[in-house]
Amino acid sequence: MSRAFGSVVAMAVLALAAGCSSEPRSPRHDKFEAIAKASKTVGDELKKDAPDLAVIKTNAQSVDASAKALPSWFPGSTGPEPGVKTDAKPEIWQKPAEFKAAADKFAAAAAALRAAADAGDVAAIRTAAAGLGPTCKGCHEQFRVD
Amino acid sequence: MATAPDAAPGEVEVRLWDGPVRLVHWGFVLLIPAMWASAEFGQMQAHRAMGYAALFLLLFRLYWGIAGSATARFASFVRGPGAILRYVRSGATVIGHNPLGALSVVALLALLGLQIGLGLIAQDTDGEFAGPLARLVSYETSRLAGDWHEAMFNLLLVLIALHVAAILFYLIVRRDNLVRPMLTGRKRVGTTVEQPQAGSAGHAIGGVVLSAAVTAWIAAGAPL
User: Fold this and answer.
1) Quick check: B135 and A140 CB within 8 A?
2) How high is the ipTM of this complex?
3) Domains of chain A: total
4) Chain B residues with CB-CB distance to A110 below 8 A
5) Alpha-carbon span B46 to A98, nearest angstrom
6) Closest CB to B128 among A32, A33, A137
7) How far apart are CA B221 and CA B224, in angstroms?
8) Which CATH number covers residue A127?
9) Residue B47 in contact with residue B194, Cβ under 8 Å?
């Protein structure tokens, strides 16, 4: 590979990398990602022949704690912070009652999952886990940029 | 078969594409836009079901590329750069995929394979829709696969556009209709050629069973 070609490739890669991280990402993003990871871990365990109840319990507790805290992740009363990359729609602040109702549904589903996980009842965990995803999706459809 | 009215004397009709090749080809023609639409409109159950159909078609086509009719076999049409250049310079009539067109076949199958593979391990952010193999990878990997799955479709569109442009070039410039043989399986050629060897029905049935079994196993999450 010629040196000139190598430099062009290197510049293209750098430009691409720069384009991906041009704006700071909202710290909220990582918290939501932690929820997604924890729910995936629970789901993956449930697909195994012998789910690890301790792993499920830890992750269910983490989702439950996040669900309780979630409304506080959207401070302010006007809209998303300017200059921060976010998929949060202004509707979150414009329709606080609807947003709270959606967050409450998620919190209820997360609490049910945690209760089932604490009890160590796989059938109940399965039912509760199946009820969790739709509450994520339901809120995202309304309040998150697709 | 009766001689077609526009068949000049000395022309022979070759059985160019067998049934399995044509079914796989038109299967993808129907599946690709339908799969795009299902993803675009959030019909993920349908998207997944069609993804399994696409996986089955791809597996069968790979098998048929080894065990199928002469014109379906990769060994009969995948050629090196030298053969491609010679073909481009000579423009000779080829029974089956020409060396240049072979690149298109390989690129399309490879990209479809990559696309299906990414779909199998992808999941959405809500964990509501996940490929059957998403459980085997981390959340980050699964989401990255989902992003690439979405982006890669544009590359597939580029390849399909090239494929269609080539067909139009052959139709308009070289007066060679490539679509009709892909529909009927038959093509009239002016030169005397041997009929390409046809694949056996037994091999076809074996390929269907094998591809269906592998698809079902993957759809079940690849249990070991």
Assistant:
1) no
2) 0.77
3) 1
4) none
5) 30
6) A137
7) 9
8) 1.20.120.10
9) no
User: Which of A137, A139, A140 is the best mutation test for B, with the most CBs of B within 10 A?
Assistant: A137
Position with higher pLDDT, A36 vs B8: A36
For A24-78, write each residue's pLDDT tens digit. 677 889 999 999 999 999 999 999 999 999 999 999 999 999 999 999 999 877 7
pLDDT digits (tens, 9 = 90+) for B54-98: 999 999 999 999 999 999 999 999 999 999 999 999 888 888 999
**By residue range, what is the domain housing residue A88?**
3-143
Q: Looking at beta carbons, which residues of chain B come within 8 Å of A39?
A: 127
- Which chain A residues are Cβ-neighbours of B221 within 8 angstroms? 47
Using an 8 Å Cβ cutoff, are B56 and B215 in contact?
A: yes
Give, to the nearest 10 degrees, the angle between helix A53-69 and helix A27-46.
150
Residue bearing tokens 């995202």 = A140
Inter-chain touch A43–B135, beta carbons under 8 Å: yes
**C-beta contacts of B195-198 below 8 A and 24+ residues apart:** B195/B14, B195/B15, B196/B14, B196/B15, B196/B16, B196/B69, B196/B70, B196/B71, B196/B95, B196/B96, B197/B69, B197/B70, B198/B15, B198/B18, B198/B69, B198/B70
CB pairs under 8 A between A and B: 35
Distance CA B146, CA B121 (A): 8
Contacts of residue B133 in chain A, CB cutoff 8 Å?
A: none
Six-digit token string for B18: 């067998």
